[in-house]
Amino acid sequence: MAAQRDQGHNGDQPPAAVPDVSARDVPAARERARAIPEAAVARLAVYLRVLSGMAEDGVGTISSEELAAAAGVNSAKLRKDLSYVGSYGTRGVGYDVDVLISEIERILGLTRKHSVAVVGIGNLGHALANYGGFPSRGFPVAALFDVDSDLIGVPVGGIPVEHIDDIEAICRDREVTIGVIATPPAVAQDVCDRLVSGGVQCILNFAPVVLGVPDHVEVRKVDLAVEMQILSFHVARRADEAQAEVTVDGTRPGVDEAVVGR
Ligand SMILES: NC(=O)c1ccc[n+]([C@@H]2O[C@H](COP(=O)([O-])OP(=O)(O)OC[C@H]3O[C@@H](n4cnc5c(N)ncnc54)[C@H](O)[C@@H]3O)[C@@H](O)[C@H]2O)c1
């Protein structure tokens, strides 16, 4: 029976289920990849984006401080993250940008070819299908599916929408590796089951529902409202901390002194 899987979205403590590294990689590299915390995996993807931009600008080497600043993390955390990749840089020189890119790509499983199917070509599905950022980062969209007869055959982002009934055959034929679910929640499990029947092992789920999948399938759930709740939590916590800093005589450090000093 399908198991309910961890579908965390913001990366907490448990080790991430990183896709296997390519066949030529040694077992030690696989072990290393399995031990990387999920939050570090998310940061590695950010470093990769920053490094790719630098490589395009012709940057050859970069210090950990420069890369940390560009990625918005502190340099101690960056060095720790890069140690998971097995990359320690050269003292006084820093990291070779191209080497670091290929090391992170290998750990993230990006040396494998990926191909994406988007299911549910409504508001969200249209935006995702039209987004040019996926192909340029190694995730070309290969197929679109919907149930609405008005949409079937209509190209979105240059790819014609196919009927959901053909999803298994088309996913197998086009070797789809990642299925993106952007359907109403009531049909998301059925869509997920069909993707899995079509050989898809990675599911990115936007529908507000927990999906059951077999053990060999990975699911990530994206929920922007949860991200906003997390932002709200951090702002509220900061406000609480500022309130707690009010001194016993009622003055607020850094605020009332400034007023008194005027
Ligand atoms: N995670 C987030 O932050 C986030 C943000 C926006 C929307 N959503 C979710 O994404 C989903 C899509 O939202 P939307 O605004 O694009 O909805 P929408 O109604 O505009 O689009 C849904 C599409 O799914 C299609 N569909 C319905 N049943 C189908 C099936 N069995 N197989 C294939 N396609 C089917 C519909 O024909 C329609 O084109 C919803 O579940 C919504 O809650 C999530």
From TrEMBL:
Record keywords: Cytoplasm, DNA-binding, NAD, Repressor, Transcription, Transcription regulation
Domain CoA-binding residue range list: 110-210
Region of interest called Disordered, as start-end residue ranges on this chain: 1-24
Listed Pfam families: CoA_binding (PF02629), Put_DNA-bind_N (PF06971)
Gene Ontology CC, one term: cytoplasm
SMART domains: CoA_binding
GO biological process, one term: response to redox state
Molecular function via GO: DNA binding; DNA-binding transcription factor activity
Localization terms from the record: Cytoplasm
UniProt entry tagged with the keyword NAD: yes
Binding of NAD(+), residues: G120, I121, G122, N123, L124, G125
Secretion signal span: none
Domain of life according to the entry: Bacteria
DNA-binding region coordinates: 46-85
InterPro entries: CoA-bd (IPR003781), NAD(P)-bd_dom_sf (IPR036291), Rex_actinobacterial-type (IPR058236), Rex_DNA-bd_C_dom (IPR009718), Tscrpt_rep_Rex (IPR022876), WH-like_DNA-bd_sf (IPR036388), WH_DNA-bd_sf (IPR036390)
Presence of the UniProt keyword Magnesium in the record: no
SUPFAM superfamilies to which the protein is assigned, alphabetical: NAD(P)-binding Rossmann-fold domains, Winged helix' DNA-binding domain
Quaternary state and interactors: Homodimer.
Functional summary from the UniProt entry: Modulates transcription in response to changes in cellular NADH/NAD(+) redox state.
Membership in a protein family: Belongs to the transcriptional regulatory Rex family.
Protein name, UniProt field: Redox-sensing transcriptional repressor Rex
